[in-house]
Amino acid sequence: MPQLGSRAKKRRGRELLFGTLALVVVASIVAGVTYYGLSRPRGLDPQTMCPADGPVGHYVLLVDKTDPLTFIQNQAFTVIFKDLIEKRVPEGYLLSVFVLGDHFQQNAAPLVELCNPGKGVGRSELTSNLTKLRRQYESKFIEPLSKHFNDLLADRLSETSPIFEMLQLVGLNAFRKHDVSGERRLLIVSDMLQNTPQLSMYKGPVDYAAFAPTDYAQKTQPDLRGVQVELHYLMNKPQIQTRRNLQFWEDFFEKAGARIDLVRPMEG
Fold first, then answer.
1. Would you call 224 exposed, middle or buried from its count of C-beta atoms within 10 A (0-12, 13-18, 19+)?
2. What whole-number distance in Å separates Cα of residue 94 and Cα of residue 116?
3. Strand-strand pairing, 57-64 and 184-190
4. What distance in Å separates the CA atoms of residue 205 and residue 244, rounded to the nearest whole number?
5. CA nearest to 221, candidates 258, 190, 252
6. Global pTM?
7. Pairing of the two strands 93-100 and 228-233
8. What strand order describes the sheet that includes 184-190?
9. Do strands 259-265 and 112-115 pair parallel, antiparallel, or not at all (unpaired)?
10. CA-to-CA distance for 134 and 120, rounded, in angstroms?
11. pLDDT per position as a tens digit, 90-148
């Protein structure tokens, strides 16, 4: 086998070096393209603003409008609502808003239901149009929700307050319908006083252990498994909104598979 000269050996070495470098560059490009393809956002649903793969968490707001709010209650609710949509709902989470009125049949569907599309926090201006993201966040999430604020306020006193029935509908048409695997949270703004022909808490305290075996209890039992619950109490009847009333709801939600992790009496 003929021996290579020194010049040929150098040329051969350079060819091997350049070939190796070329392979490294190609591999880096392929890896970069693959990573970008796997990690880049897959887009949002144009109607709901939810991620293409579905919401990563689910917040539900249930607002009791069976009694008009006092001036101070209105101010307190405004703070709660604004804080929820502007600060609390994380990017990629779905927010469903329901109302509780006289006739639960008319409120079975959410008043509005949207995901937070994000406003570009933490993203680089080199890879994202931050102005466009902020404009989309305002026009597709904040503004549509804000437009429904007055729809959550009562203008008259209702004859009934079917809380059990609305909780069933929330379980069905929010949590079960979307079946989000991430955080599931229910915020309730209400006096938490069930008032229907079958059961009125205005007549006095109700013991859950005595109520649970009844036909009405079993008929209105919701499924809220894995849901964390916040109660924002409208203190309309403090004399009957006692610790016994709260104990009823603690037992009620435990039976439903949920857990109360915040109780807050509202001002007014």
1. buried
2. 7
3. parallel
4. 7
5. 252
6. 0.82
7. unpaired
8. 112-115, 93-100, 57-64, 184-190, 228-233, 259-265
9. unpaired
10. 7
11. 999 999 999 999 999 999 999 999 999 998 665 545 445 778 889 999 999 999 999 99
Radius of gyration of the chain (CA): 28
Helix or strand (DSSP H, E) at 174: none
Q: Residue 107 is encoded by which pair of tokens?
A: 């409120």
Task: Please say whether the beta carbons of 262 and 185 come within 8 A.
Answer: no
72 close to 59: Cβ distance less than 8 angstroms: no
CA–CA–CA angle 36, 39, 44 (5° rounding): 115
Q: Evaluate if residue 13 carries a pLDDT over 90.
A: no
Q: Which two tokens stand for residue 13?
A: 């070495």
DSSP for 20-69 reads HHHHHHHHHHHHHHHHHHHHS---B-TTT--BTT--SEEEEEEEE-SSPP
Question: If we measure between CA atoms, which residue out of 135, 131, 122, 46 comes closest to residue 91?
Answer: 122
Placement of tokens 């203008």 in the chain: 155
Nearest to 55 by CA among 91, 97, 85: 91
For the chain, counts of helices (H) and of strands (E):
9, 6
CATH fit for domain 57-265, picks 3.40.50.2300, 3.40.50.410, 3.30.70.141, 3.20.20.70: 3.40.50.410
- Summarised one tens digit per residue, pLDDT across range 20-73 is 444 444 344 334 433 333 333 458 999 999 999 999 999 999 999 999 999 999
Q: How far apart are CA 61 and CA 73, in angstroms?
A: 17
All structural domains of the chain with their residue ranges: 1-40, 57-265
- Tell me phi and psi for residue 210, to 5 degrees: -80, -30
Instruction: Name every residue whose Cβ is closer than 8 Å to that of residue 1 and which is 6 or more positions away in sequence.
Output: none
